[in-house]
Amino acid sequence: MSATILDGNKISAEIKTEVAAEVAELKATGLTPGLAVVLIGHNPASEIYVRNKVKACELTGIYSEQHTPPETVSTKDLLQLVESLNRRDDIDGILVQLPLPAQVDSKKVLLAVSPEKDVDGFHPMNVGYLSTVRPGLVPCTPAGCMEILRRSRIKIEGADAVVVGRSDIVGKPVAMLLTNANATVTICHSKTHNLKEVCSRADILVAAIGRAGMITPEYVKPGSTVIDVGINKITDRAEFEKYFAGDAKREAAFAKNGSTLVGDVHPKVVEVAGAFTPVPGGVGPLTIAMLMANTVKAAKLRRGNTVPTKVG
Ligand code: NDP
């Protein structure tokens, strides 16, 4: 039996359509949600991410603007920029694209973003709101994992969930969201004993590790749901063979591009899991969709509207 593929592209498109409808409703009342993206220097990956974010804003009707300080920017100048964005009424969301250059105090800059405009959901105030189940802004990738589960009608309440990874941006918030949704959650990390055994008890297994193909079928309970957050680029032929030998479609893409993406979950898990998110095309597309949803949520929350938005 082969697992159901949880199609992140389809779910992301659904969410963007819903967000666009919400933006249209807001615009009819004279309010256009606005997102400011701060991109420093010329990191090619960051430039692609930002381009995609701006495109998603255009698609959903959200106003967006980019700020591109030079690579040599100081912490002080960046703090000034963030403060000026904090003060502007037409900007609802501020996103400082990471990583920041070495001379910049990243923590200080992220802390300076007003919690009300913190569409990445990284500010300690929003972390606190999440852990105390208050309305706030939730990190985009973890929120996207939850949307995939909910919209695919995977039962969360009462499920045994295991999250591998405890980073502030993925592992911890996703574990908190699952807890808030009444799953029984175990968080694992590099010091966890008997990881395979712990994972193999999970009804819902979330992998946010950053290690290509680490979660092999032996880690997975038959019929369970596996959410693969990992994005790992492979360029080595031997490594490619390890994951994708015999996959004609991947073979063609690898030959053309000289690389392909693999998650933290081994593709063979498809033979054991009940449902899983592919890489690419699983969790990845949700991150930007949830950024759009967060910008609308921020616009509403900031104006005292604590009624939950339709998404996020
Ligand atoms: P981090 O490196 O910050 O965290 C990795 C976590 O995995 C750590 O908690 C670490 O444990 C744990 N870990 C590492 N090795 C092992 C191991 N052998 N066994 C058990 N646990 C281990 O990564 P992120 O959380 O930022 O990202 C995780 C993955 O998700 C990456 O592949 C990243 O590219 C991807 N990602 C994808 C996004 C998307 O849009 N789809 C967005 C963000 C990230 P410890 O704490 O003990 O060190």
Rg, rounded, reads: 20 Å
- Total beta strand runs: 11
Shape: globular
Q: Which small-molecule ligands are present, each listed once?
A: NADPH dihydro-nicotinamide-adenine-dinucleotide phosphate
Measured as a percent range, the helix fraction is 40-55%
The low-confidence runs, each spanning 5 or more residues with pLDDT under 50, are: none
Number of alpha- plus pi-helical segments: 11
Helix-strand pattern:
EHEHEHEHHHEHEHEEEHHEEH
Overall CATH architecture of the largest domain: 3-Layer(aba) Sandwich
Estimate the strand proportion: 5-15%
> What about the largest sheet?
6 strands, parallel
Widest sheet, order of strands: 1-11-8-7-5-6
**Termini Cα gap:** 33 Å
Q: If you consult CATH, what is the topology of the largest domain?
A: Rossmann fold
CATH class of the largest domain: Alpha Beta
Structural class: alpha/beta
Question: If you average the pLDDT, what whole number results?
Answer: 95
Summarize the structure.
With 312 residues, the chain is α/β, with parallel strands linked by helices. 42% of the residues lie in helices and 13% in strands. The relative contact order is 0.17.
